[in-house]
Amino acid sequence: MKPFAGLLVLLFLHAGLVAQQPDARTSQSQTPPPAPKQKPQPAKKKEPAKQLQRTRIDASMVGYIDPSAVQTEVRVRFDAGFNAPRPDRAEYFYAGCNGAIPCIGGIQRTLNFQQLYINAEYAPLKHFSVFVEVPFRWVQPFFIPNTGPPTLTSGGGISDVQAGLKLAAIASAARNLTFQLGAHFPTGNGTNGLGTNHYTIEPKVLFFQKLSDRTAIEAEAGDSHPIGGTIYYATPSSPPQNYAADVAMYGVGPSYQLISRDNYRVTPVFELVSWHVFGGLQAGSNSVVQSAAGINVLNAKLGARASFSHGSSIYAGYGRSLTSDVWYKNLFRVEYRRVF
Questions:
Q1: Whether pTM exceeds 0.85
Q2: DSSP secondary structure of 261-314
Q3: Which of 258, 252, 251 lies closest to 305, judged by CA?
Q4: Whole-angstrom distance, CA of residue 148 vs CA of residue 251
Q5: How many angstroms separate the CA atoms of 44 and 139, rounded?
Q6: CA 102/CA 152 separation, integer angstroms
Q7: With contact defined as beta carbons under 8 Å apart, do 204 and 234 qualify?
Q8: Percent helix, strand, coil in the chain (nearest 5)?
Q9: Of 89-103, 210-224, 256-270, minimum mean pLDDT range
């Protein structure tokens, strides 16, 4: 019996040990699978900083008609005019003769002149700007021999300074409609042919219309209204007459962008500019002062503007009179403009 009892004890001990050992399959099923390894995220590429793109030169391509764009800019312009036979007409270019019997001296046959303009415009608002223009003038008169010395000699100096403002009713990439009011101050010596010797108010309406990607048309209409002016007496007992008078001006200028590149473009422009003199006087032949009322002058201007992406442009053009009454026969103009 004792061996049998011992055998039973051994069997019970073995069964207890087996029961205490965990099932390998159970332990394997209860163990959570290892987490998958996450791939490292690639570093985000930094986008290059956007370069500041400058606005190209304003839409205006004209060289004689006033530009309609309201903007901050500087402009330097040089004119060379030839054969101006009546520069005192209505005191639009320079002052007329004064005194009881003026113009007794040499009879002026014609006048050549050069003018340098320095213009600055500042636009604190999109639709409003102010401007000032300082001109310098040189004159070379030619006389027919007559009794007495010439009434004008060659020389140069500052001419009449202009200042004013521009107000845009419409200002977009396709269309501009701008009102401009300028005032001329008698800073030039009219006796020397450098100014008019009177103040002038000059209101204008300026227009720009883009017709296509390459074509545009610009126009202006305005009036030059003198305040004061030289008083002329045909005889000591005759009634006084004012040499100065209103002069209306209007013009139109279509342009076509012939060359268009990313950083520059070249645009030919053809302009027709006309003036109508409402009154005033002018020196005629044989020193006779006569009326200038009703005179019409029409000029054709042909030129081109090369403009660049950094905001500057260069214009060169030639103007010629198409009528018998002229301000000048021929005029050459070059201009540099920088828009900010």
A1: no
A2: -SSEEEEEEEEEEEEEE-S-EEE-GGG-EEE-TT-EEEEEEEEEEEEETTSEEE
A3: 258
A4: 41
A5: 69
A6: 13
A7: no
A8: 10, 50, 40
A9: 89-103
Mean pLDDT value across residues 232-237:
78
Distances (CA, A) of 330 to 84, 191, 208, 290, 318: 9, 24, 27, 24, 7
- pLDDT digit string, tens, across residues 286-332: 667 889 999 999 999 999 999 998 889 999 999 999 999 999 999 99
Least Cα distance to 199 among 208, 212, 207, 190 occurs for: 190
d(CA 54, CA 51): 9
The Cα 168–Cα 128 span in angstroms is 6
**Per residue in 20-55, pLDDT tens?**
555 544 445 455 556 565 656 655 555 555 544 444
Cα–Cα distances (Å) from 264 to 82, 145, 198, 309, 310, in that order, read 33, 53, 43, 6, 9
- Amino acid identity of residue 95, one-letter, is A
The reported pLDDT for the residue numbered 287 is 63
Amino acid identity, residue 169?
A
At 153 the pLDDT is 78
pLDDT for the residue 46: 59
239: Cβ contacts below 8 Å, ≥ 6 apart: 233
* SS3 (DSSP) at 20: helix
Instruction: Tell the CATH superfamily of the 73-339 domain.
Output: monomeric porin ompg (2.40.160.40)
Higher-confidence residue of 17 and 245: namely 245
Give me the residue spans of the domains in the chain: 73-339
Report CA dihedral (159, 165, 169, 174) to the nearest 10 degrees.
Answer: 50
Q: Please state, in angstroms and rounded to a whole number, the distance separating the CA atoms of residues 109 and 144.
A: 6
Burial of 228 (0-12, 13-18, 19+ CB in 10 A): middle
